[in-house]
Structure formats: structure tokens, C-alpha cells
């Protein structure tokens, strides 16, 4: 695999270096781990042409029905519908080889999230796995594009849908989220007890 580009524009606040995470739409403290994760996001965007809106970073497993878990998936790639998980990505530091221990960790995430594809990378090596209903996850070549990934076996991994979760205030202020979930907002069909004044902003 071609070595990933690692250029990131830096910002300095209170003497500390940050960069802007476009997936999470926030400034992130610069660390080797986070830089590696963002470099991998660039690879998927530039090489596989995955839309930014279909990439999530540092996703808590609690969001996907595992309230007892405190770990996070490094990167998730969603199908065009924005809900179904297509791939899970595990990012490692450059000095960590992508060995069987890393692959075992990757596939635990993939199985828990029911993703069809699973990627593991340290920035120079990339290993790719794809789910087969008869034989489980098998190593394969890196897909040529996001479009080809989405033409894959959509029904091979059942129940690979994101679970409903309560959005935080920052998420509710995101206009993209508002537009996507417009039908979930209070309207004529909303039950009366949910329309009480305390649910509305103070004038």
C-alpha cells in the first residue's frame, strides 16, 4: 500500500497544537494516534472517493448497543443511506505491525458492528477483510472505490444498522443532522404531552 499522506494544517491554542477534524467538526488536540487516524481518513476520501458525510471517527461502541463497553471504533464507513455500517477501520501507529493480534482485534469490532468490510492499517501496510456468509471474514484486496464497495453483498451482514441514540446539544446544532432527521422534530403528529412548554426554548 502506498504510504499515506500525513500533511495536516495545524492551529495553536494556549500553546497547544490542534488540527480540525472534518468528520467530527471540531478541533482535536494533535497526538500521533489522532494524526494517524486523520491520515487514514484522507486515504479513504482521496483514493476510494468516500464522501466525508459517510465517514465517522472515534465512535463509541455504546452508540451501537453495547452500553457496557468503553472502547471506540477508530473509523466507520457508512453506506450511502448514512445508517448502515459498510466497514470498520482499525488504525495503528507506524511501529506496530499489522499482525494476527491486530487482525483479531479488528474482526472483533467488525463482528460486533456487523460490517461487511474490515480494514487495518499502520500508515504503510493495509490489510482488508470481507465478510462471506458461508466462511466469515476472509482477507481480500483493497476495493478500487467506494462505489464498488457499495455494489457488494448488501444483505450479507444482517442488522448492520445504527441504533437510535439521544443526540447531544452539539449534534442538534449541526444543520446537516437537522435536515437528515427533520421528520423527527415536533410537529402536528407529535403527541400532546411532548408539546408542553418546557420542551421549547425560552422566548
Automatic annotation (TrEMBL):
Ranges where the Type I restriction enzyme R protein N-terminal domain occurs: 32-137
One Pfam family from the record: HSDR_N_2
Name of the protein in its database record: Type I restriction enzyme R protein N-terminal domain-containing protein
The species this protein was found in: Sellimonas catena
Amino acid at each position: 500500500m502506498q504510504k499515506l499522506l500525513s500533511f495536516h494544517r495545524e492551529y495553536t491554542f494556549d500553546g497547544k497544537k490542534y488540527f480540525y477534524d472534518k468528520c467530527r467538526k471540531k478541533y482535536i488536540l494533535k497526538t500521533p494516534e489522532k494524526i494517524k487516524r486523520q491520515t487514514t481518513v484522507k486515504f479513504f476520501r482521496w483514493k476510494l472517493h468516500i464522501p466525508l458525510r459517510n465517514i465517522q471517527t472515534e465512535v463509541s461502541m455504546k452508540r451501537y448497543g453495547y452500553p457496557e463497553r468503553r472502547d471506540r471504533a477508530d473509523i466507520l464507513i457508512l453506506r450511502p443511506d448514512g445508517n448502515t455500517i459498510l466497514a470498520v477501520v482499525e488504525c495503528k501507529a507506524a511501529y506496530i505491525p499489522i499482525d494476527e493480534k491486530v487482525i483479531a482485534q479488528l474482526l472483533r469490532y467488525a463482528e460486533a458492528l456487523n460490517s461487511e468490510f474490515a480494514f487495518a492499517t499502520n500508515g504503510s501496510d493495509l490489510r482488508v477483510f470481507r465478510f462471506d456468509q458461508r466462511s466469515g471474514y476472509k482477507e481480500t484486496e483493497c476495493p478500487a472505490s467506494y462505489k464498488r464497495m457499495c455494489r457488494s453483498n448488501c444483505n450479507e451482514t444482517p442488522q448492520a444498522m445504527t441504533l437510535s441514540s439521544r443526540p447531544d446539544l452539539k449534534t442538534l446544532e449541526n444543520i446537516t443532522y437537522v435536515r437528515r432527521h427533520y421528520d423527527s422534530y415536533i410537529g402536528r403528529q407529535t403527541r400532546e404531552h411532548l408539546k408542553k412548554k418546557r420542551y421549547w426554548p425560552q422566548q
